[in-house]
C-alpha cells in the first residue's frame, strides 16, 4: 500500500521518544522512490487522452502528499530532539549521538548553535545571558557535589581552577556546576 | 510549575528574624532590609532568613499564624465552611515547609504543626477534588477560585485545564452554546 | 563606605516616567509568570529586561570593589542570582514558544506596527534565522529529491499554532467589568472579576486583559 514506508518513519520516532535513533537513510530513499514512481504513473495516466483514470490519479496524488508530510514530520521531529540536546549537553554533541545524525543535521545543529549564541550575546542590550544555565531557581550560592568521574581541571567563570577527581566531594558555586551535573560528571548532594 | 518554582516564589515573603550581628540597612533591588541589631527582630525575605539561619547568624521568629492554636482554629474553620477559607498566608504550605526545614529548633511544637498543616491540606484537597468534579460535570466555562493558594492550583495543573481543553474541543463540533454558565466555588 | 553601592533607586523607562527599581523588578516578575502560563507569546519587555541588566551589572561591578568577606556581598549575590533566574526563565520561556510557533509568530508580528511588535529585535532575528535554518534542512534532505509538483514547501502546512482556547488560572489586579467570555451567550450576565479575586477561564476570552495588565496569570 502507498505511504506505508512513510508511516514506518513516524512509528520509528514514536518508539524511542527519549533517544535519537540512527538517521534512516534507507527508508527515506524508499519513500522518495515511491514518490517518484507515483509521480511517473500519474504523468503517464494524464498523458493518455480522455480515458485517463482520474480516480487513480487522485489517490496517487494524495499518497504523494502524505509521503511528503511523513518525511517532513520525520525530519522536524528529529530536529526537535537535536534542539533539546543543545539545551541538555551544550554546544558539543556527544559522539554517540552525533553518530546517529546525518550530515545536514549536524549542519543544522551548528547553525542553531550559532544563532542561539548570537541571540544570547545580545540579551539585555548586549550584556549577554547564557539561557542554558539557571534552569532551576537558585537555592544557595554554593552547593555540595560529589564527583562521579575523573574529569580533571575545570575552570570556572571567575578564573579559579578546580581539579575534579572521582569520589571526591566539593563545595562549588552553583552556576558552573549545573552543566556538569546534567552531564553526569557531578552529583548534587542534597540533605 | 514545579515545586522548586513554587518555593522560589514563596521565598519572597517576609519573615522576622532575630540576628546575632549588627549591620546597617542593605539596599536590595527588591527593597531595603535592616538595619540589623543583635537581639532585635527585623523582617527579611525568607530566602535570606534561611541562608542566615543555615550559617547560624540568626534565629527565625515563626510567623504569627505558625503555632498550634491558630492552626487548629484555621482547621476548624476549613472543616465548617463549604467553600475555601482564606489561609493566613498565601503560601502557607510552602512557607511552613521551608521554615520547618531549616529552623525546626526555633518553632515550638513543630511536629504538631506539621500534622495540623497536613490535615488542613487534606481537607482543602478534598474540597478541591469535588470542585474539579463539578467543574467538569457542569461543563463550566469559568470558575471562581478565591483563596486557593499557588501550590493548590499547581496540584490541579495541568490536569484540570487539560481535561477541560479536551472537552472544549469535543464540544466545538456541537457549538460553544453547549457550555453552561459560570461556577463559583467560593463565597 | 556608601552602603547603597552608588546605585540609583530610580530609573527612567521613558521620557516622562520614572519608577523605582523595585517596581521594575515586580513588573518583570509579573511578566515572567504571565509568559509562563500564557499559551501564546506575549509582547516583549525589552525596556524592563534591559533596565534589570543595567542594575545587575552595576551592582556586580560595585561588589567587585568591596571586601569579599563583607556580609553584604553574599546577600547581594544571592539576590542577583534570583533576578538572573527570573530573567533567564522569562527569556527561555519566550524562546521555547518562538521555536515552537516560529512561522505563526513571524506572520502575526509582521502585521503589527513596529512599536507594537511582540518579538524584540533580537528575538525577531533569531526567529527568522531559525525558520530559514529548518526550511533549508527540509529542502536539502527531502524536498529537492521529490517530484516537481510537491517540491514546493508549504509553510502553512507545517505551521504550529498555540491553542488560545486553553484554560488558565488568573487573579484580577484591578476590577474588570462586563466580561463576556467565550461560550457565554446573550442570556448570560456579563461577568465581573473583582480586584484580587481568582478565576479559571479560557485564555482567548481574557488575553487582552492579561496584556494590558488588568489580569495576572497565576
TrEMBL record, chain A:
Subunit structure: Component of the GINS complex.
CC annotations in GO: GINS complex
Protein's name in the database: DNA replication complex GINS protein PSF1
Organism: Gryllus longicercus
Domain GINS subunit, residue spans: 33-123
CDD domains in alphabetical order: GINS_A_psf1 (cd11710), GINS_B_Psf1 (cd21696)
This protein's record includes keyword Glycosyltransferase: no
Family: Belongs to the GINS1/PSF1 family.
InterPro entries cross-referenced by the UniProt entry: GINS_A, GINS_bundle-like_dom_sf, GINS_Psf1, PSF1_C
From TrEMBL, chain B:
Main location: nucleus
InterPro entries: GINS_A, GINS_bundle-like_dom_sf, GINS_Psf2, PSF2_N
Location(s) in or outside the cell: Nucleus
Protein name: DNA replication complex GINS protein PSF2
Keyword RNA-binding assigned: no
GO terms under biological process: DNA replication; double-strand break repair via break-induced replication
Similarity-based family: Belongs to the GINS2/PSF2 family.
Provenance organism: Gryllus longicercus
Domain GINS subunit span(s) in chain numbering: 65-162
Domain DNA replication complex GINS protein PSF2 N-terminal: start-end pairs: 3-61
GO cellular component: CMG complex; GINS complex
Highest taxon of the lineage: Eukaryota
Automatic annotation (TrEMBL), chain C:
Domain GINS subunit: 71-141
Stored CDD domains: GINS_A_Sld5, GINS_B_Sld5
Domain DNA replication complex GINS protein SLD5 C-terminal: from-to ranges: 162-218
SUPFAM superfamilies: GINS helical bundle-like, PriA/YqbF domain
UniProt entry keywords in alphabetical sequence: DNA replication, Nucleus
Signal peptide positions (record): none
Keyword ATP-binding: no
Biological process (GO), any one: DNA-templated DNA replication
Subcellular location: Nucleus
Broad class of the protein's primary localization: nucleus
GO cellular component, one term: GINS complex
Function statement: The GINS complex plays an essential role in the initiation of DNA replication.
Family as reported in the entry's similarity comment: Belongs to the GINS4/SLD5 family.
Name used for this protein in its record: DNA replication complex GINS protein SLD5
Lineage: Eukaryota, Metazoa, Ecdysozoa, Arthropoda, Hexapoda
